[in-house]
Specification:
The chain has 481 residues and is of the alpha/beta class. The protein has helices at residues 2-35, 40-43, 54-70, 82-106, 114-145, 159-170, 190-198, 210-216, 228-231, 235-244, 282-302, 304-317, 352-355, 376-384, 391-397, 410-413, 433-436, 444-456, 460-476; strands at 150-155, 176-183, 203-206, 221-224, 247-250, 262-267, 270-275, 323-329, 335-341, 401-403, 429-431. Strand 10, helix 16 (410-413) and strand 11 form a beta-alpha-beta unit. The model has no long low-confidence stretch (mean pLDDT 81).
Length: 481
């Protein structure tokens, strides 16, 4: 029921965005082709016919809609605030404009007017915000008029029932009216019942009175908001709702202290409730993987001269192999072989015990700024992070991602506290929040908390921000050891 309303609102927003793109295109063309030539400085500038700009319009429309999707603009609630719509459209228009300009340069579309593109995206920003806001106002009015209105009855008098009533009261845009509540069984629950009555919710009787009530009243759904142990006693209610064609909704606060997202799945005929501890946005995660594959492939291709030059330097300046291959722990503890350019002397692992008392960071990791095991060229590779570039091969293989928590060695994981192991719940990456926040200058707990923050707040936008900040962070060499 809620999902249907949100999808309907999302489709309406998509339709308004498509109208916005068309209107903005013709408006921008009119301004550039008709109005601006009236200004002397634009009078003699060459401007091509409208058919030349249609490919640009298609490209920019794709980028804008992609940005809106990644920013979650099609999942906004019905009562979304005007300022949030404006901020989201500002971000989408900004990134869409940058990507369109970049593609124009790459494809050498020299005939395209940059002024037209700028006017186009500014028009998109303001018209898009206006259209979205008008649709939101229309949906809210429809709720008040009863078009998107739903009548509910509640079964239960527990804390979950009170929480549900409070949520409905603070979210009028969803269009729910709770007609009253039924007690789930023989229990009277006088105190809880009295509290619900104080909130203006009518008492309708016992659960056994529901069938006759549903037969004579207009009710769209029955909401069961009860403790898990009592739900098994309500099987008859489920059958009655199915027989009468009335929707039944369950409040799933099975474990009150757990706030992880819940997904419904099926294994053959077995219904499953999936308590997710990591992001489950299927399309966004697929796009992230495509970004990894493309980024790693083109990175290895374009950086191949630097990789070959570095390999030769490592081989010629110290005895030993070119690559340092080490076992690391990836997604949920899967072990894999991580590749780096060798930066230390050949027997560095054997000398580790002699140097452990010099460790300059807390926690189970080992780092010292002037590690005597580093070769002269290795110190430079460490400072510039060039030694990490072979891990693009790990990214291409799917063992790592461009962005994610750094992969630890098994010996470190053995010393983790339980809460720290959660950082293994996402694929490890070349860069992360730790990388752009100071690296070794941060204490171990802060590092772990940054990784958990990344997992909890993950989005494609966050990945892009981290990638954009990685280059200056690496060039600054701050925190590199």
């Amino acid at each position: 029921m809620l999902r249907a309303a949100k999808k309907y609102f999302g489709f309406a927003c998509l339709a308004s965005d498509l109208v916005n793109l068309v209107v903005s295109f013709f408006a921008a063309y009119f301004v550039r082709a008709v109005l601006l030539p009236m200004i002397p400085s634009f009078e003699k500038r060459v401007f091509f016919s409208i058919d030349k700009y249609i490919p640009v319009a298609i490209i920019s429309a794709f980028f804008l809609l992609l940005c809106l999707f990644l920013l979650g603009a099609f999942k906004f609630p019905l009562g979304v605030a005007l300022h949030k719509t404006f901020i989201t459209f500002s971000k989408a228009a900004f990134f869409g404009f940058l990507m369109t300009i970049a593609l124009i340069y790459l494809l050498k579309l020299v005939y395209v007017s940059r002024t037209f593109v700028a006017i186009y995206f500014v028009t998109i920003l303001f018209l898009g915000t206006l259209f979205r806001h008008l649709i939101s106002l229309r949906f809210r009015k429809s709720v008040r008029e009863g078009i998107h209105h739903r009548n509910l009855v509640l079964v239960g008098c527990s804390a979950q029932a009170h929480e549900f009533i409070d949520s409905v009261g603070t979210s009028p845009e969803v269009g729910f009216t709770v007609r009253g509540f039924f007690l789930p069984g023989g229990e009277e629950c006088p105190e809880a019942k009295e509290e619900l009555l104080k909130k203006g919710v009518a008492f309708l009787g016992n659960v056994y009175d529901i069938p006759k009530f549903l037969e004579r009243e207009v009710i769209d759904a029955v909401v069961v908001a009860e403790e898990p142990g009592k739900v098994s006693n309500l099987e008859e209610l489920f059958l009655v709702c199915e027989e009468l064609g009335v929707e039944l909704i369950m409040s799933l606060r099975i474990f009150p202290h757990i706030n992880t997202p819940i997904f419904f799945e099926r294994l053959s005929d077995i219904p499953l409730l999936h308590f997710a501890t990591t992001p489950k946005a299927g399309l966004a995660l697929f796009i992230k993987r495509m970004m990894d594959i493309c980024g790693a492939f083109f990175g290895l291709l374009f950086l191949s001269p630097l990789l070959l030059f570095t390999a030769a330097l490592v081989k010629l300046t110290s005895p030993g192999p070119v690559f340092f291959i080490q076992e690391r722990m990836g997604l949920r503890g899967r072990r894999f072989r991580l590749y780096k350019f060798r930066t230390m002397v050949k027997d560095a692992e054997k000398k580790l015990e002699e140097l452990k008392h010099l460790n300059e960071v807390d926690g189970p990791v080992f780092k010292i700024e002037r590690d005597p095991r580093l070769t002269p060229i290795g110190r430079l590779l460490r400072k510039s992070s060039i030694d990490e570039l072979p891990q693009l091969w790990n990214v291409l293989r799917g063992e790592m991602s461009l962005v994610g928590p750094r992969p630890p060695i098994p010996a470190e994981v053995e010393k983790y506290d339980r809460w720290q192991r959660r950082r293994l719940s996402m694929r490890p990456g070349l860069s992360c929040l730790w990388q752009i926040s100071g690296r070794s200058d941060l204490d171990f707990d802060t590092w772990m908390k940054l990784d958990l923050k990344y997992i909890e707040e993950w989005s494609l936008t966050l990945d892009l921000i981290i990638l954009l900040k990685t280059v200056p962070a690496v060039l600054s060499t701050r925190g590199a050891k």
